[in-house]
Amino acid sequence: MQHRGFLLLTLLALLALTSAVAKKKDKVKKGGPGSECAEWAWGPCTPSSKDCGVGFREGTCGAQTQRIRCRVPCNWKKEFGADCKYKFENWGACDGGTGTKVRQGTLKKARYNAQCQETIRVTKPCTPKTK
């Protein structure tokens, strides 16, 4: 009987903790605790060291300023930024003259109101086929 009571108490504590974490996340998404501001303007994610990894993003709304943690993927494309998400076509055929292949991407999502191009073209060197 004591084991069942302990198990029930542990389950209730876990549920309370999960609920508290969910409420905290909701407050952060709305602009922080006690924030009445609706239109936040967020800057780019700036890595703490090097050019990728964990960093911070600053946001302003009126006289309020906030800093939130963010992460820049280490495989991000610097030409169009980490906050611009694109849907890419398949790679085209290899251009023998330049030794590169090309594909086009259309904007899927702009995070934190980033200024993104609607379509982009990216290139990469052709890989020699060895068989």
Automatic annotation (TrEMBL):
The answer to keyword Secreted applying to this record is yes
Q: Where is the Pleiotrophin/Midkine N-terminal domain?
A: 24-80
Q: Name one Pfam family in it.
A: PTN_MK_C
> Can you quote a single GO CC term?
extracellular region
What keywords are assigned to this protein?
A: Developmental protein, Disulfide bond, Growth factor, Heparin-binding, Mitogen, Secreted, Signal
Q: Where in the cell is it found?
A: Secreted
Residues in Pleiotrophin/Midkine C-terminal domain copies: 81-131
UniProt-listed SMART domains: PTN (SM00193)
> Which region is the signal sequence?
1-22
The record's SUPFAM superfamilies line, in alphabetical order, gives: Midkine
BP GO terms, sorted: cell migration; positive regulation of cell division; positive regulation of oligodendrocyte differentiation
A GO molecular-function annotation: growth factor activity
Write out the similarity annotation. Answer: Belongs to the pleiotrophin family.
- State what this protein does: Secreted protein that functions as cytokine and growth factor and mediates its signal through cell-surface proteoglycan and non-proteoglycan receptors. Regulates many processes like inflammatory response, cell proliferation, cell adhesion, cell growth, cell survival, tissue regeneration, cell differentiation and cell migration.
Instruction: State the name under which the record lists this protein.
Output: Midkine
- Protein's organism: Pan troglodytes (Chimpanzee)
